[in-house]
Amino acid sequence: MIEKLNKNLKINTNSTAVITVDMHRGHLDPKVATMPCSENDCKRVVKNAVELLDFSREKGIPIIHVVMVNRVKNGESLEGGNVKFWQSLRKVQYSLTLESPSKVSKHNLEGSIQTEIIADLYKESDYVINNKKRLSVFYGTDLEILLRVLGIETTVLIGINTNTCILCSVFECFNRDYTPVVISDCVASMYGEDLHIFGLQNIARCLGWVLSIEEFKEKIS
């Protein structure tokens, strides 16, 4: 089924945008990340994303970076402080990330270096939305207005985490009648490989399309 669906997919560059989800230092720079992916995933995702984004820009496809930025109160995240699950994690002293501690209350605080987009992924021609507060790229942001202005029908998503923000955003695209496409080479999960695979499978079998970079290039060509 997935193979036939992928063959059936048509992508029009004039109505396509690439949306990067939380491709900031808070996830992808192991030296400073507050909720880091594994070092290998950071290297893989950034390297592949550079290739995808450069190719997309050459084809005239707009790039939109959506970044989580949390207001600060008493040195901690104001918005994140209301999330009951995150509150509970702090009480039981468990980490969301597998390889190193996660700092939910300190994650991507306004003005911090963690909120910076990975430098190799950003060009001045790109669009930036930096008020994401939850798992969805739409909730509380003006992304939908920007997509409407640009005449977008196909949303190509890359970033972190496959099973949370990417999956949630694919649901949101699906619910809004966009064509959601996820590039498997350019996503990862700090929660572990099992949930990364789950996220991709759930998308490909229920919600949209999962393509490799090469498959995406072939569709554009």
Overview of this protein structure:
- The protein has 221 residues and is of the alpha/beta class.
- The protein has one domain: Rossmann fold (3-Layer(aba) Sandwich).
- It has 8 helices and 8 strands; from the N terminus they run αβααβββαβαβαβαβα.
- Helix 6 runs parallel beside helix 7.
- It is globular, with a radius of gyration of 17 Å.
Set out the fold topology.
Elements: H1 2-8, E1 16-21, H2 25-28, H3 39-58, E2 63-68, E3 72-73, E4 76-77, H4 84-92, E5 127-132, H5 143-150, E6 154-160, H6 162-175, E7 179-188, H7 193-206, E8 209-211, H8 213-220
Parallel strand pairs: 1-2, 1-6, 2-5, 6-7, 7-8
Antiparallel strand pairs: 3-4
Helix pairs in contact: 6-7
Short note summarizing the structure:
With 221 residues, the chain is α/β, with parallel strands linked by helices. It contains 8 helices and 8 strands; from the N terminus they run αβααβββαβαβαβαβα. The chain has one domain: Rossmann fold (3-Layer(aba) Sandwich).
- The SS-based structural class is alpha/beta
H and E order? HEHHEEEHEHEHEHEH
Integer count of domains: 1
Outline type? globular
CATH fold type:
Rossmann fold
Q: Whole-number radius of gyration?
A: 17 Å
Give the strand line-up of the largest sheet.
Answer: 5-2-1-6-7-8
Continuous helix count = 8
- Unreliable parts: none
User: What composes the largest sheet?
Assistant: 6 strands, parallel
Determine the oligomeric state from the structure.
Answer: single chain
The level-1 CATH class:
Alpha Beta
Q: Strand percentage, roughly? A: 15-25%
CATH homologous superfamily, by name?
Isochorismatase-like
Annotation, overall tally of beta strands: 8
The CATH architecture term is 3-Layer(aba) Sandwich
The helical percent reads 25-40%
